[in-house]
Amino acid sequence: MSDAFAYAIAALLMVQALMRAPSALKGRRRKRSLWGAFAALSAAWLARTTLGRTFINDLGIPDLAYLVKHVLAITGICVLLRYITAVYATAEPSAHVPRTVRVSRLVHRIAARASLGTVIVMALVFTFVLDDVVADVPYFMGRHAGDPGLAIYMSLFYLYTAAAAAVCAVQWGGAVKQIPQRAVKIGMGMMAVAMVLAVVYALLRIAYVILITVTPVSEDFSLAQEAVTDTLLYTTFLLWGFGAIAPAFRAANDRVHTMTHLAAIHPLWRDLAQIEPSRIRQRPRRLLERFGPMAQLNKMRDLHSSYDDSPAARLHRYITEILDVILELSRHAPHDLAELARQRADGSTPERKRITAEALWIRAASAAYLTQPVGAPAPLPFDFGKNLAVEVPHFRAVSAAYTRTSADEGWEILEGASQHGAPAQA
């Protein structure tokens, strides 16, 4: 049964690592840290299984699997500490900041050194201080009961675990009050409770290792202790693993929505980018664009460009560049072009007709850009939104209408523009 729990928790943590792999590959150090924490802790749980212990111990060093498991756990915890305290690492020092912030800054500075020091001392104790293994006892602590080296080794590990869990509990517990999203709030609360249980687990294990160092205990007591503390450990990681899914799921959901927006806006952005490439920071791909399959490949490369830090940044860039090109087109467009586009547009509702008119104006203004001199900006058929929340759905609708129109319609509208609407010479 313990193996089943270990595999389940390892799989849960590995799923978290895989969900964060794309942002880890393209993201900054902080995003890679969270991915590394889940990966290292998943590996630690695999080392805890019978198969994992057998594979590592077959290297010829007794109980090496336990040292590997503990080193992986410390590595994961260290990276996690660096992640959750990084938010305060670059803040300006101040005498008036809360104590939790000052502690977080201190933890961020010393986490790596403290972790490395703990691992080195534990490795030295494991190699030179621990007595020979009592092979017929099933548990690591039982095999070395009464050995002062065990008390040093395990106390170091559990003290490190308790301190790290306490920091995480304070950070996540404090964050619960500041998070507006209900699902994320519940997830953070679960993670905070998990860290409180981790502190209790570590303290119970420290008390137990000290007890078996100074006096023998019965087998029944040892088995009961293992059952209680293992239950605490399983509960801790299950709570933490499932709690972490809420923020990860929200991030993944946001990413999906952002990519959907990008795909919808891409046709409009691509055409405008080709008309006025000087306004575009990362131009659309055009490799063998007349070949159908390559057009789709070029689109995928645009949508997943490494130029931007994230899909959200790419979406913001698309919108900004669309607006910049539209403003440039207006300097070539006849002044009555917007009215002619409205007259030409049709639609089942006033809103649909308005969006179609905007798409037709872009088609006609693009034709004017190629044939008309620069002049005073012509009136636009729409107002710019104040933020992305307004502009994204607007340009999604315009892009959809744009794909339903043709360049020929734009030329026809331009040809119907009156001479009085032509822009003044620059």
TrEMBL record:
Keywords: Membrane, Transmembrane, Transmembrane helix. Coiled coil: none annotated. Residues 260-403 form the DUF6545 domain. This is DUF6545 domain-containing protein. The keyword Transmembrane helix applies. InterPro entries: DUF6545, MAB_1171c-like. NCBIfam families: MAB_1171c_fam. The chain crosses the membrane at residues 6-22, 34-51, 71-89, 110-130, 150-174, 186-211, 231-249.
